[in-house]
Amino acid sequence: MSTSDLPRFPDGFLWGTATASYQIEGAVDADGRGPSIWDTFSHTPGAVAGDDTGDVACDHYHRYREDVALMKDLGVGAYRFSIAWPRILPHGKGSVNEAGLDFYRRLVDELLDNGITPMATLYHWDLPQPLEDAGGWRVRDTAERFAEYAAVTHAALGDRVPYWITLNEPFCSAFIGYAEGRHAPGAREGHGALAAAHHLLVGHGLAVAAMRDQRHGTERFGITLNMNHVTPATDAPADVAAAGRAELLSNRVFSDPLLGGSYPVGEHALWGRISDFSFRRDDDLAVITQPLDFLGVNNYFPEYAKDAPSQEPDPRRRVATDIGVVDNPPAHLPRTAMPWPVEADGLRRLLVWLRDTYPGLPPVYVTENGSAYPDSLVDGAVDDPDRIAYLDGHLRAVRAAIDDGVDVRGYFCWSMMDNFEWAYGYAKRFGLVYVDYATQQRIPKSSFRWYQGVVSR
Ligand code: PNW
């Protein structure tokens, strides 16, 4: 597919690509790194497909120079990566591991030397295991330790990293990690997940305040939420009500406090069986609502909500995501390998929803969007027309949202390279670059060449 008929983007639009520490770095014992909840989880038999682990992953820790050279070839202006908390503070708190900071100093210098702007995420799910052992995100202490970690890391790198993202997808940390149990730490709880969601928000606010206090210059502070546009599957009143519940869980639990200044209206109907909210303190909203310089949005698919009975009849055993909704997208939509439905206009609708729902919405960066397909290496090359079509459609949707008046400043394709796809292990490939894990050879896919054409226009 040619890029010649793709609409143009505003001057200064930031084109990028994204990864995360545990998904690519490997080197889990190098230079004093401590264990994280993902080391523990991936080494638990049956937790990850194929019992894959991030022990080696893409060995990016040792191959970052080659990977930055690929980004330079790709022509992107920016790279979004995450910093592994257990490399900086192996016990989660206390003494700082300078060797861990040094890795990110080297990476950032390499990016800057190649004219690529670094965007750092402080937490992409690799919580130091000792903090989980002390309660993890269920307890307020973790939020306070997170702010300390943010301050230490920002003090070391803030002079060279202009974009700081506190958390990646707190929804996944709280609800997939503590309710569904498909991600580390693998808990299945109701109350614990809601406490985790709250402490993640508090940790975000404390971290922004701490970093802003010691700001070096013009660096900007934001958070990345995964969000989905929600439509009722039919116009039956029960499905319309289900869509309200889905929108609350998928989006508003985080976006209402962060962008609207209040906990979501109607949330108690959802959490009815959970009545202990003592983890919320009176002044927490003031902490959570620190002004954001930008909002990061990750989006892969839209949702179509259908009313459905709760899966677990005993309310005491229900997890927090069991809200009487099933996702029922139109059958005609194509599917990726996940198998997530593909409907690019869902991204436009989501961005417009954000603008309409939150007056004063800060500038938005699409910090992740992309797709997994069953790529294969044939005669030394990977042809991935489905991924190109996916990206083409979603870029047109972003452009249409800008035309609709949404202030979108950049787009980061997930992912720079194939990597450890969490519960799916290495079986799902999202990369613009194919990774042959047996040899660690990197092979740019045809989507890489296509995206090169997009970002160079
Ligand atoms: C995001 N879901 O995760 C993450 O930020 C990335 O680390 C990940 O590789 C990427 O999307 C692709 O999955 C998600 O179940 C994981 O809806 C799961 C879901 C959404 C996003």
TrEMBL record:
Active site: E169, E368
Family named by the database record: Belongs to the glycosyl hydrolase 1 family.
Keyword Cell membrane recorded: no
Keywords annotated in UniProt: Carbohydrate metabolism, Cellulose degradation, Glycosidase, Hydrolase, Polysaccharide degradation
Any single GO BP term: cellulose catabolic process
Keyword Hydrolase: yes
Gene Ontology cellular component annotations, sorted alphabetically: cytosol
InterPro entries: GH, GH_1_N_CS, Glyco_hydro_1, Glyco_hydro_1_beta-glucosidase
GO molecular function, one term: beta-glucosidase activity
EC number: 3.2.1.21
Positions annotated to bind substrate: Q23, H124, N168, Y300, W414, E421, W422
Catalytic activity field: Hydrolysis of terminal, non-reducing beta-D-glucosyl residues with release of beta-D-glucose
Protein name: Beta-glucosidase
Lineage top rank: taxon: Bacteria
Source organism: Actinocatenispora rupis
